[in-house]
Amino acid sequence: MQAKINGTNIYYVEGGNPAAISVIFIHGFPFSHAIWQSQLEALGHDYHAVAYDFRGLGKSDLGDGQYTVEGHVDDLLALLDFLEIDKAVIVGLSMGGYIALRALERNPERFLGVALCDTQSKADDNAGKIKRAAGAKAVKQDGAAPLAESFVEAVFTPASIQNEVPEVDFIKDIISANDPVAIAGNFIAMAARTDTTESLAAIAVPTLILVGEEDTLTTPAAARDMHTRIKGSQLHVVPHAAHMSNLENPEFFNARLLEFLSTITG
Ligand code: MLT
């Protein structure tokens, strides 16, 4: 389905019961809504589930190729309006978590709860920003396929890479299909994002934090830091998983997500 959001076509899928609590899934970088298939199935008819492609990635339009996390939050809020959802639970993985954290900081009244998956509140330091700039330059020069090859090494456990689990090729294909201009634009958006650490203490909605035990990009230490700052938050370390914990251990991930959702009332 396409929604005209802030002048750009945003692609989304929805399922479940439209009258139930809405759960909005925000993917990481540089993926698409497709990473959430197992979670959408797990939610079944008990929830209204929506997964969308943020601007530039998946099947959403490229726009002008210049993005900010701020703009992605504008799109998330406009998508809620488009779907006539007053308040939703948001589930953000990695960059999706950066978007979720900033959305909660800006418009807490629109959210019933949040699941922060393999993400962090800290902004990039100088070394991180320089790395993003190099990533943007390389993807524009060389295209998305070489990035996909190196990215999977960083986001999956060594065991998944060695055993050539199908999820590795699945993610490579998603990355390779994305427009290099959009990938570069989102590298820059991440480099320019604000630090949301100080606002974690103000989060007043139920919060679930999930992190793969072998996540080296957004580490269990970063997850524990958010857990100590967000009052009443739950933290679960996902076994046998790195950064793509929803894909590497969907049984554990989905069980914790469903337990969490069952505690939320509209
Ligand atoms: C992501 O998975 O969204 C990105 O790898 C996050 C990041 O690079 O900070």
Poorly predicted regions are: none
Mean pLDDT: 97
Enumerate the distinct ligands: D-malate
**Biggest sheet record:** 8 strands, mixed
* Coarse structural class: alpha/beta
Describe the model.
This protein has helices at 37-43, 69-82, 95-106, 126-142, 144-155, 158-162, 166-177, 180-191, 220-229, 245-248, 250-261; strands at 2-5, 8-16, 22-26, 48-52, 88-93, 111-117, 207-212, 234-238. The protein is α/β, with parallel strands linked by helices and 266 residues long. The chain has an eight-stranded mixed sheet, with helices on both faces. α2 packs across α3. The model has no long low-confidence stretch (mean pLDDT 97). The chain binds D-malate. The site of D-malate (MLT) has 6 residues, from loops.
Quick overview:
The model has no long low-confidence stretch (mean pLDDT 97). 44% of the residues lie in helices and 18% in strands. It has 266 residues and is α/β, with parallel strands linked by helices.
Secondary structure elements and their pairing?
Elements: E1 2-5, E2 8-16, E3 22-26, H1 37-43, E4 48-52, H2 69-82, E5 88-93, H3 95-106, E6 111-117, H4 126-142, H5 144-155, H6 158-162, H7 166-177, H8 180-191, E7 207-212, H9 220-229, E8 234-238, H10 245-248, H11 250-261
Parallel strand pairs: 3-4, 3-5, 5-6, 6-7, 7-8
Antiparallel strand pairs: 1-2, 2-4
D-malate binds next to loops.
Which terms summarize this structure?
single chain, binds D-malate, globular, eight-stranded mixed beta sheet, 266 residues, alpha/beta
